[in-house]
Write a structure and sequence with these properties.
InterPro entries: Peptidase_S1_PA (IPR009003), Peptidase_S1_PA_chymotrypsin (IPR043504), Peptidase_S1A (IPR001314), Serine_Proteases_S1 (IPR050127), Trypsin_dom (IPR001254), TRYPSIN_SER (IPR033116). 7% of the residues lie in helices and 32% in strands. The chain has 2 domains: 4-34 and 50-128 and 228-239, Trypsin-like serine proteases (Thrombin, subunit H, Beta Barrel); 141-227, Thrombin, subunit H, CATH 2.40.10. The strands form 4 sheets. Strands 2-3-6-7-8-9-4 form a 7-stranded antiparallel β-sheet, covered by helices on one side. A hairpin with a 2-residue loop joins strand 14 and strand 15 (196-197). It contains 2 helices and 18 strands. The protein is mostly beta strands and 241 residues long.
């Protein structure tokens, strides 16, 4: 099997993250909230989402809840997070880089980068996902993945990685769901059912559309628009190489 080493970017929200880039120094991009949900999804086929990773500090956790980056471990090649399947890579973080304009009140600019201590090895179980070249278009079918809560009410966290296919909503649709709370750096993915948008709490995790990472979870059903941060990501990588 062909394998190569790479330092990697990922962008994510909550308990998991996607690998998106392989610059000279390994970093991971994430966001802050921990309310991941994958409601109405299905078990991902093993190795079908090789860019996804788990973030840990002795357990599967939300990155934004920790202050000491050396306690953060990235687990790549995961499918069942409760079982060592033999394909995992375990890498510690050495640096956390917050977006300088992050607003904890509005959740605007909800993205950060984590520099990894050693390169990841790219193989059949671990791969990267491209950064976006165009913004997410309404109606585009996207893949959301994660180990988030599978219940809208209550809690049931799966061991196996969950997938959910869902469309990008129009600005009018997500403004109805979160009036006055969606900035130009956010967009919504989900379904409209019975007049209520499942954007209110039915999905979480990275959003990949046409094989490009478009979103990292900002709040239930709402995602940070990665397209708006491509220059910041690249500049930050260069400055920390």
């Amino acid at each position: 099997m062909h394998m190569r080493e790479t330092n990697i970017f990922t962008l994510k929200k909550g308990r998991s993250a996607p690998l998106v880039f392989h610059p000279p120094d390994a970093l991971i991009g994430v966001s802050f909230d921990d309310d991941d949900k994958i409601v109405g999804g299905y078990n991902c086929e093993e190795n079908s989402v090789p860019y996804h990773m788990s973030l840990n500090s002795g357990y599967h956790f939300c990155v934004g809840s920790l202050n000491r980056e050396y306690h953060i471990q990235v687990r790549l090649g995961e499918h069942n997070i409760e079982v060592l399947e033999g394909n995992e890579q375990f890498i510690y973080a050495v640096k956390i880089i917050h977006h300088p304009k992050y607003n904890s009140w509005t959740l605007d600019n909800d993205i950060l980068l984590i520099k990894l201590s050693t390169p990841a090895i790219i193989n059949a179980h671990v791969s990267t996902i491209s950064l976006p070249t165009t913004p997410p278009a309404a109606g585009t079918e996207c893949l959301i993945s994660g180990w988030g809560n599978t219940l809208s009410s209550g809690a049931d966290y799966p061991d196996e990685l969950q997938c959910l296919d869902a469309p990008v909503l129009s600005q009018a649709e997500y403004e109805d769901s979160y009036p006055g709370k969606i900035t130009n750096n956010m967009f919504c993915v989900g379904f409209l059912e019975g007049g209520k948008d499942s954007c209110q709490g039915d999905s979480g995790g990275p959003v990949v559309c046409n094989r490009q990472l478009q979103g990292i979870k900002n709040r239930p059903g709402v995602y940070t628009k990665v397209y708006n941060y491509v220059d910041w990501i690249k500049d930050t990588i260069a400055a920390n190489s």
